[in-house]
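seq as requested:
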Amino acid sequence: MRTKTLEQNTAQDFAGLQIDQLSKLRNGNITFEQVKWFNNLTFEQREALMGKQPEMVLFLKLLSGAETLMLDALDGKETLATAKEVFPSGIDGDFKNWGTNKAGIATKEQAVDVHELVKDSTFAQMFGSLGTDLDKLCLTQAQIKNFCKKHPNWLRKDGYATFFLFKVEDQFFVAYVDVDSDGLDVYVDRFGDDGVWNAGRSRRVVVPQLTA
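struct tokens:
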């Protein structure tokens, strides 16, 4: 029995797309699994699918490219649920309710990038647009706290969110930090939440700096 080639499978994927699915892909209204599939295509395959417009699926733009933002080496023991000194304005009770109040791993010094949301998206779309391996996009809770202490000027102001992806055991969560008049507060959502975040608020996303 002959094995289908990648090109044949991809061609069948193209042929199997319905008009409304293709419209969703062009408009960026896609799931994380579709983002993974799309990111694994070659540039030529993306062009064929998108009608010579593969870069339309763009949710984030890099803000910190001209600056190197470093996090300290950390033991990983600190959690967001107990970081009252950094988030005096409030800490979401769901950090404890959802069992996230657990120490993470020790980390070395880490460079991070700050992106700005430029297209309405879910968590899966905004983080998925940076890569298919979510583990490489995670910071520890201690690193998130460290970023807020060392680089507060890079947080989105005026009460709008800056997002951080983190993992506890086998579950992914998104912490988001708001800067209010009386200091920082921090909230948590499950990564799989399908709510759509408005790009018009210029919200930000912080992830480890990805090497080529």
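Helices lie at 6-16, 19-27, 32-39, 43-50, 94-97, 123-128, 141-150.
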